[in-house]
Amino acid sequence: MKNPRLDLLVEFDDCTTVDLEMQLRQTKDNLPIRFSYYLARLHGSQQLEGKYYGELKETIVLVFFNVNLIDNDRMCNTFTLRNEDGLSFVKKTEDCMKICTIEMANLDVNKPLEEMNEQEKMIYYFLNCHKGVDD
Fold this sequence. Notes:
Layout: E1 8-11, E2 17-23, H1 31-44, E3 59-65, E4 76-79, E5 97-103, H2 118-128
Parallel strand pairs: 2-3, 3-5
Antiparallel strand pairs: 1-2, 4-5
């Protein structure tokens, strides 16, 4: 019996809901399938009774990985409903289900902080914040 647990659930003023997940190591579960499931549950949990489907709010599963799962060199990827040729199933303005991945393992930890962009600095912080203030 699966009982999924959100690491952090955030709702913004525009009612966009984000499930923020931190995954520091590979598990026995198939992580991409697990996070697809989380997205489906989160999106389907919206109260829609008496409303139109066009009123569904954006839902995002934002995953920080410390493993390499996506087969490219990008640190950040966003996945939406598209076909095998990249054609979107819904209009861009209606594309309200996303999985955003941040693969922290792709960070060059030897790169000087002065040369890192803001995204790289944030990831560097996540990877090193347990070490203490002086590091």
